[in-house]
Design a protein that fits this description.
alpha/beta, Rossmann fold, five-stranded parallel sheet, 42% helix, 17% strand, globular, disordered C terminus
């Protein structure tokens, strides 16, 4: 779904971390269609390598990844990049325990799969306008 407005210029690059290639490619397609520069990592280890090599404004990360979990990826990002990237969990697992663990690992927001692209775009715009790093995991 394409929005009528162009994306905020402060969000230059996004990293999608998702082991299901169809889901990753579809999400990246939607984001690119809305004007974002999107890279994809298909597992946690690849995501860590990409974060080491490049800076991203936003990272959308699945929690249930092969090898290094999304929790591990988020914790690594916080250790090496601090609070700068806005890190969003996108997971099929949405129990209170999973959401609490996501918050502790360093995720800023949490979306249950399938993420609503309109709501995701709203959150990205809100983040771009406020550049907030406050953890906000909705219940």
């Amino acid at each position: 779904m394409k929005t009528t407005e162009s994306p905020p210029t402060v969000l230059r690059s996004l990293l999608v971390v998702e082991d299901n290639r169809d889901v990753a490619d579809s999400l990246a397609f939607i984001l690119r269609n809305n004007g974002y520069n999107v890279s994809i990592a298909y597992d946690g280890d690849q995501a860590v390598r990409m974060v080491e090599d490049s800076e991203y404004d936003v990272i959308l990360c699945d929690i249930g990844l092969p090898g290094r979990s999304g929790y591990d990826v988020a914790a690594y990002i916080r250790r090496v990049r601090g609070s700068a990237p806005f890190v969003v969990a996108v997971s099929a697992f949405s129990t209170d325990n999973v959401k609490e663990n996501a918050s502790r690992a360093g995720f800023n927001r949490f979306f249950s799969k399938p993420a609503d692209p309109i709501e995701l775009e709203r959150v990205l715009r809100e983040h771009a306008s406020k550049k907030t790093d406050v953890l906000a995991v909705p219940k």
